[in-house]
From TrEMBL:
The keyword Transferase does not apply. InterPro entries: AB_hydrolase_3 (IPR013094), AB_hydrolase_fold (IPR029058), GDXG_lipolytic_enzyme (IPR050300). The keyword Hydrolase applies. This is Acetyl esterase/lipase. It comes from Agromyces flavus.
């Protein structure tokens, strides 16, 4: 059988709905790297890989090792010094015109961190934005949170960027989703104070943030009528919406990895990421934990951004196709030559392409309704 014919299959979950989802054991060196990350805070990616001691074919530690690092250090180490908040202002000096403020939002599991961004020339459009991080990392300072928030605000959009509790140390669904729901409700209740016009508050996110945004949109749709504000639209950038990593032909995966120096995540690692978030077998079927499950009717008009060199792109493509089948306006735009979560790497030209596509949509210069 040729490599192109062979597929890399994700692992299968246990059959019992209440059964905990098993993850492989992390390497011993993942413990050492997690402890070092807790002490040093930020380390270079090649050092992280060397300390972790083993890598996948993607050139990164397996998900279970990253999980161990996150559990010990409290976060995944930031690995790109060019994407720190200070470095962003050096690279993009126009962003200094945007002011921002950290706020604390009450949530059912305790305070939720958020950051509001004030545009120099507001236009009444608002966006609640959720960062990625494999459910186990990320924060308000990471590039896929801070950089797009600054850029969108510079174009007149009032942004509320949300943090959420990571799926580490016994935390699983619905806790991160509950945090994002609390953040959305806070932003919606403060929309007038924030300068957002009625019916102009959107919800979106990058990677896992796209999962959380779509799941919260479904929760809002299904809440008691009149109790919640429904997003004007959804913006899902390289979202992971299914409870498994889609199978890929082995030859295609190899070509993807040859085409980029960035990570191309395996279906196995994507599935382990989903299992860690879910915690139990029954959650893999939950329509809010994994928004591709269940009924999609009644969701807001949706923009899905995918990236060419990304095993997650099929998740967004399938979701958009099913939205259209449910009579929800939805369009997919793919960023050519981009690897997963390009907005985490602002120095790459593809990151600007992805960001511009989102901004054009929010500003009404291009939208699913008009497409």
């Amino acid at each position: 059988m040729s490599q192109e014919a062979r597929t890399t299959e994700p692992p299968r979950p246990p059959s019992s709905p209440g059964e905990r989802l098993p993850l492989p054991r992390p390497s011993g060196r993942a413990t050492a790297s997690g402890l070092l990350a807790a002490v040093l805070g930020r380390i270079a990616p090649n050092l992280l890989i060397r300390i972790a001691g083993r890598t996948t074919e993607a050139g990164i530690p397996p998900f279970v090792d990253l999980l161990r690092i996150a559990e010990l250090s409290g976060n995944l180490p930031a690995t790109d010094p060019s994407s720190t908040p200070a470095a962003l202002l050096t690279r993009f000096p126009h962003l200094a015109e945007v002011t921002f403020e950290d706020v604390v939002v009450p949530g059912p599991h305790g305070p939720v961190r958020a950051r509001t961004y004030r545009p120099p020339h507001p236009n009444g459009i608002g966006l609640v934005w959720v960062h990625g991080g494999a459910f186990i990392g990320g924060d308000l300072d990471r590039a896929d949170a801070h950089w797009p928030s600054l850029e969108f605000a510079h174009r007149g959009i009032r942004v509320v960027s949300l943090d959420y509790r990571h799926a580490v140390r016994g935390v699983h669904y619905p806790v991160p989703s509950d945090d994002v729901l609390a953040g959305w409700r806070w932003a919606a209740s403060h929309a007038r104070e924030l300068g957002v016009a009625p019916g102009a508050l959107h919800l979106g996110g990058s990677s896992i943030g796209g999962n959380l945004a779509a799941g919260v949109a479904k929760r809002l749709r299904d809440s008691r009528p009149g109790t919640d504000t429904i997003p004007a639209g959804l913006v899902l950038v390289t979202p992971f919406l299914h409870p498994f990593g889609a199978p890929w032909p082995t030859g295609m995966l190899e070509r993807m990895r040859a085409a980029t120096t960035n990570a191309v995540v395996s279906p196995e690692d994507l599935t382990h990421m989903a299992w860690n978030y879910a915690g139990r077998r029954s959650v893999l079927d939950d329509p809010y934990a994994f928004p591709a499950n269940g009924d999609l009717t009644g969701l807001p008009p949706t923009l899905v951004i995918t990236e060419e060199i990304d095993t997650i792109r099929t998740s967004g493509e399938d979701f958009a196709e099913r939205l259209r089948a449910a009579d929800v306006p939805a369009v997919v735009r793919m960023t050519p030559g981009a690897a997963h979560s390009s907005m985490s790497r602002p120095a790459e030209p593809t990151a600007q392409v992805t960001l511009d596509a989102v901004a054009e949509h929010l500003l009404g210069r291009w939208s699913p309704r008009a497409a």
